[in-house]
Amino acid sequence: MKLEPNVWFDEVVKTYHLISPHIHHTQLVTCPDLNEELGGRFLFKPESLQITGSFKVRGALSAISRLSKDELKRGVIAYSSGNHAQGVAHAAKVFNTPATVVMPTDAPERKIANARALGAQVIFYDRRTESREEMSREIAKEKNLVIINPYDALETIYGQGTAAYEVIHDANNPKLDNAIICAGGGGLTAGSCISIKHINPQCNVFTAEPEEWNDHQLSFEKNERVAMDINRGGLCDGLLTPTPGEIPFAINTHFGVKGLSASDQAVCEAMRFAFNRLNLKLEPSGAVALACLLQHKERFRGSRTLVMLSGGNVDQKTFAECLAKAN
């Protein structure tokens, strides 16, 4: 793909103005005790407080806002473990187009219920035996629907980049030493790079993943996309994408992104930290960047670091179990 960082940034700015009436401008929060402990300043972007409970609505609104009248009349389809499904369902309501979402049979009940409540038709697949991409393409062809890709499309990435675009305008001092971004397909990291690196070209950007699903970390180390075993489960349901997206990987590699990963134990401890010290309720996938910060504290001591808290769609049972596991 052609690398056009300035064009990408202009598109993020354009997208922000397009979608800002339909999203929450989530405000940065910080933790004075953590700042004092590590001798730095740590800025948390709580996309758990976003409409539909995650950053994914930004990309969905961006992609759907760019559709023609004919495409909107036909309707849209998306595949997702839950947060992109909800984002597409909300964006479809905003732009008055029918939405179908393909979700795994083991998706959290809350995410399924929310997608349906927003008006989407939900179709299930088995993530271990069926390909959600193939199923979505077949349904799209049969019903003449437009596929809204969750991360491997520039139109989606521009929307994800609006979260970091808000950060560089909200921070009194927009200079960042580091940014830690939760990564499934890599779209949020790619969008964040576009925004952050435009202002802070020296900022170090890290993907954050569970240790058992660290395909980005491995891919950056090998300089090629690595695939994980799709039969392996995981606590962070929103990040169980087997390989980085082609477009996000190209963008993230261009910007020199490196990978971090954290244990499930660290994720549970991050959820407790966020709840007790930031007054935020995070889902496991939304807490993994914080988990990486807490597990690798020494690496970030004395720095000014952004941490993306990407989602908060967690049922009470899972949330309680994770808090109970935290030390």
Essential attributes:
alpha/beta, Rossmann fold, 2 domains, 6-stranded mixed sheet, 4-stranded parallel sheet
Please outline the helices and strands.
Blueprint: H1 5-19, E1 29-30, H2 32-38, E2 41-46, H3 56-65, H4 69-74, E3 76-79, H5 83-94, E4 99-104, H6 109-117, E5 121-125, H7 132-143, E6 146-147, H8 154-170, E7 178-182, H9 187-199, E8 204-210, H10 215-222, H11 246-254, E9 258-262, H12 264-277, H13 284-295, H14 297-300, E10 304-309, H15 316-325
Parallel strand pairs: 2-10, 3-4, 3-6, 4-5, 7-8, 7-10, 8-9
Antiparallel strand pairs: 1-2
Q: Rough shape? A: globular
Tally of separate domains: 2
- Share of helical residues: 40-55%
- Assigned CATH architecture of the largest domain: 3-Layer(aba) Sandwich
CATH topology category name of the largest domain? Rossmann fold
Helix and strand succession?
HEHEHHEHEHEHEHEHEHHEHHHEH
Which consecutive residue ranges, at least 5 long each, have pLDDT under 50?
none
Instruction: Just give the CATH class of the largest domain.
Output: Alpha Beta
The largest β sheet comes out as: 6 strands, mixed
Please provide a written account of the structure.
The protein is α/β, with parallel strands linked by helices and 327 residues long. The protein has helices spanning 5-19, 32-38, 56-65, 69-74, 83-94, 109-117, 132-143, 154-170, 187-199, 215-222, 246-254, 264-277, 284-295, 297-300, 316-325; strands at 29-30, 41-46, 76-79, 99-104, 121-125, 146-147, 178-182, 204-210, 258-262, 304-309. The strands form two sheets. The chain has a six-stranded mixed beta sheet with strand order 1-2-10-7-8-9, with helices on both faces. Helix 3 packs across helix 5.
